[in-house]
């Protein structure tokens, strides 16, 4: 009787269905385990890269637009750099010439002038002796735009007697300086972090856990734990480190040795550095592609912009630019780079795919910083001579003026405060 039931077609069909369901459940369990393992050993990096690429894909396309001048901002400023938040707040760092950070809306209107004077004791710094001033150099925003970290070239006031200078070496007696954290809502300093001597570029890892700062006089890279608001390690780089770029998975940093010819690769977990590539003389600014495959480098003394293939650690594209290409920003869609040429009073828009120069715009003297403002798809250029040029990426309108008669010849060494 049992044998007859087992051979019954209905019974056989039901057994097969149950078996298929069991196999499907088993497959789902195995797939879930694989994905869990990927998350533990590297899935986060894959997810971060995918998210960055998706954001680029959805961004405003600048491949068919041109830069149109909107306005020139002046006032009590000597902006070394500009940095734009995701929500359109732009801050300019005015060094020791003004001792301020000026904050602007996306429309170019001044929102606040933030002094760099702080009482370090109020932030828990032991043995602080009163109010001191900094000298804001560069800045980087958190991903949500709530905070900005600002480096200070040097500190001035009680307790600081060995101020920074550009011609220093690692043996120079220079006081360590601080990075300020600026709150976007209050536009006030709400945190300070001690780093090395003459910190310049600051960068946040995509996972927002690590802040990096290049210390010009110390010849090191500071690694700061954001949660602790504390420098937890330093990595030796070389002569006058400056530019920083961080891989999409937050595991690797790239650091430009502007006083030499080398870009270093830093393992952020092991906290070790090794030479990656020699892209040209005086490498200054670095930008990494959203897929983590390419690194873009400006060479201040070689007057070039190069693209490095990170898999082979070799330069695979090069373009010559006007005198002293310095700071660089990438468009939100990843299709263009904006590079300022300090010695030529010019800014170039360069296509990332093949480094074709698409447009060159005349600026005021000494363009030194540049940022891409995403809410209005605008490019902000800070000129050390005392102004900020705001350009819109537009599909119509009159293109911004080009330089007349070309720029001055290249200089092997830039002016003070590189």
UniProtKB/TrEMBL annotation:
This protein's UniProt keywords: Signal
Domain of life from the UniProt record: Bacteria
Stretch list, region Disordered: 394-418
Comp. bias intervals (Low complexity): 409-418
Domain YNCE-like beta-propeller: 173-370
A Pfam match: YNCE
Database matches in PANTHER family: DIHYDRO-HEME D1 DEHYDROGENASE (PTHR47197:SF3), PROTEIN NIRF (PTHR47197)
Protein name: Beta-propeller fold lactonase family protein
Organism encoding this protein: Arsenicicoccus bolidensis
